[in-house]
Amino acid sequence: PFDWYVEMREHSPVRYDESRDCFDVFRYDDVDRILHDPETFSSDPRNAPGLDLPPEEERSPLLETMLSTDAARHDRLRGVVEEWFRPRALAGRRERLESVAAGLLDDAVAGGEMDVIDEFAYPFPVIVIAELLGVPSDERPTFRRWSETLVEAPDGRTPEAMDDHRREQQRVSEELSAYFEEKLDARAVDRRGDLITVIADAEAAGELSRTEALGFCMLLLVAGNITTTNLIGNAVRCLTAHPEALARAERGDARLEPLIEEVLRYRSPVQALARFATEEVEIAGETVAEGDVVVPWIGSANRDPAAFDAPDEFRIDRAPNQHLGFGRGTHYCLGAPLARLETEIALTGLFDRATGIERATDELVPVRSAFIYGVTELPVEFER
Ligand code: HEM
């Protein structure tokens, strides 16, 4: 998409797209302003009548989460689990994460080649979030299908394709909801120190409705896995395309923190967000009406030369790096500290076991999604 972003930032920084009925926004300053103004640019799709949401009783609990709500309700929801995701709370889990990564990597490197996505970048974050939540991680093929369906774009723009897509998403949402309904009920009697217990307790205390509690579990399961898979995959992809940086990283001669931030900027796993205008407002000279859908392209903002020096260069020690890969403002990614920790452990574990990593094929199949950016397979060869 990066050539398209250049064209858009230069010639149509804010443009109405008739086929999707939304305003796309491409420049860093405009995207940043939108994310900092949640009153005007709401995260709640109920503010966009044109979206034609299903009737209330058929709506997914995912609409009742912090991701899709604003202001006090958002803060109340986020507050229930915020503590769990702070770097200090996560530090105590480092060893367990390292041991999960080690188990997967020892198997994956055994043959001198591996598919980074399938054998490692996919299972690793799913096992981690399943353990945090307190659900069996051996159900991960199902988790994968659920998560992928929820981020997938329709297979074409025909009314049939759109209809199929909507039905499929609805079905997955119902399956997820039924799955967690059972888990929440079980936790009322069988308490464990996991996140589902925290959520079940908040429900019992009247802080969350049942729908909110369900949405919570669904969001945490889905938000943290495809995104982190693609951060790890995109990191390996960036490094194999930059052999000098890779050699430094493999030797342990590069700091991983800024490297990971640069991957978040350069190949952002989430490229686009959605906001809903609560009043008429102007963005860079274009008038957006109340109820309109606005799409801030963080993937484009992250390549804006007005915000970054040589934005199309991948620099593993870039500083400063005010990228928007985790969003900004009140909805700033709750899981950012976890995603960073997982990716650091993933890359360290990989470089401990493999050197001279090279892509085994030139072919890249992009993830089919309107907002997630990554590849579905990444076969590599290496020496052990
Ligand atoms: C929000 C990206 C990993 C949970 C967000 C947002 C972005 C993002 C861009 C902002 C959405 C918006 O403003 O509308 C990413 C990326 C990840 C990642 C790139 C990995 C590389 C995770 C993980 C978890 C998580 C591991 C948790 C297990 C959430 C939640 C929100 C969120 C709950 C909503 C926060 C709120 O509305 O206050 N993420 N995320 N994410 N993310 Fe992440």
Structural class, from secondary structure content? alpha+beta
CATH architecture descriptor text:
Orthogonal Bundle
- The value of Rg in angstroms is 21 Å
Please report the distance between the alpha carbons of the first and last residues.
35 Å
Major sheet summary line? 5 strands, mixed
Whole-number total of structural domains: 1
What are the low-pLDDT stretches, counting only 5+ consecutive residues below 50?
none
How much of the sequence lies in strands comes to 5-15%
N-to-C SSE series?
Answer: HEEHEHHHEHHHHHHHHHEEEEHHEE
Bound molecules: protoporphyrin IX containing FE
Enter the CATH topology name: Cytochrome p450
Question: What's this, in brief?
Answer:
By secondary structure, the chain is an alpha+beta fold. It has 16 helices and 10 strands.
